[in-house]
Amino acid sequence: MRRFLSLLSFFVFFSQISFSQYVTRCKEDGCTSKVAPWQYVHSVTSNGKVKKTKETTHIYTFLPTNYSKEDKKVPAVIICPGGSYHHLGMKHEGYQVAQWFAQNGYAAFVLRYRVSSHGYHHPAMIQDLQLTIALIKKFGNEWIDTTKIGAIGFSAGGHLVLHSGIEKQNYIKNEFPASEKYGLRPNYIMAIYPVVSMEDSIAHQKSRKNLLTKNYTQDDIHQFSIEQNIPDDMPPTFVLACTDDDVVDVRNSRALWQALNNKQINFSSYAELPTGGHGFGMYKNNSETTKDWNERLLKNWLDMIPAINQYPYRESFDEFFNKKRLLVMPDEN
Q1: Which residue of 109, 141, 239, 252 shows the fewest CB atoms closer than 10 Å?
Q2: What is the pTM of this model?
Q3: 59-328 architecture in CATH?
């Protein structure tokens, strides 16, 4: 427990960085604190007048349940709620997700990243996620295994975490030069009913506009279509979607899965459930098929991937994941 008693000082260390920041108590169950690592002053023009507004990025921390000082370092997960890059579903795609991970032995960080409703577009979102990864690696290595930092995102948040997996550019080096020392990609990724493509045929139009503004180019469409940019060293990726998703076309997830397969990204998995729709988070389930999906599918994957566990491979993995990659598709009958 001693390591976690120093958590507040862990965040206080952020003050050594030249960002406006503060630490406050968090009201959500299981949340110990929230930190604002930086604050932006943003100019908005309205009726010919320029008004300056402040937008604060927040990181909410949830400690692993029943952790003792004798325990080894724990894995971490950064949680990115969805909301079309316009707003954020902080409760069912943020805090509740963190509570589940904490119950399963993870240090969980819910990221309230900047969105378009406050005037922000790319690269604000990826900056916030890269900064969170860098800060955990710099200041959390006493109690977190910094080789086991994952990211889970829902809907547009899924696009964000996938973007962090393919992105090699450091978007925070000017604000945080020390970040050049750290890898800014997660070690494993979970994309839940994700926005994936920017192509007209399947793009989620609101997310594309909020991310890129309405003045995007064909180059932007290619650059931000995840399925067109999977690198050979893409982190292991878990993908979950529903066939009847009426918000983000399920073809987004299918295109991502095909791209992961084409690159032979081992220890990745894809589950497509017949019903469930969109936006069910981890506990808000309206369909029997999505009920307890985290316990039935995600937990098994986390228990077996080398990114979390020490062993590089075991026979049962092949049995469960069909040659290192799992595909669960709805019954076509």
Answers
A1: 141
A2: 0.85
A3: 3-Layer(aba) Sandwich (3.40)
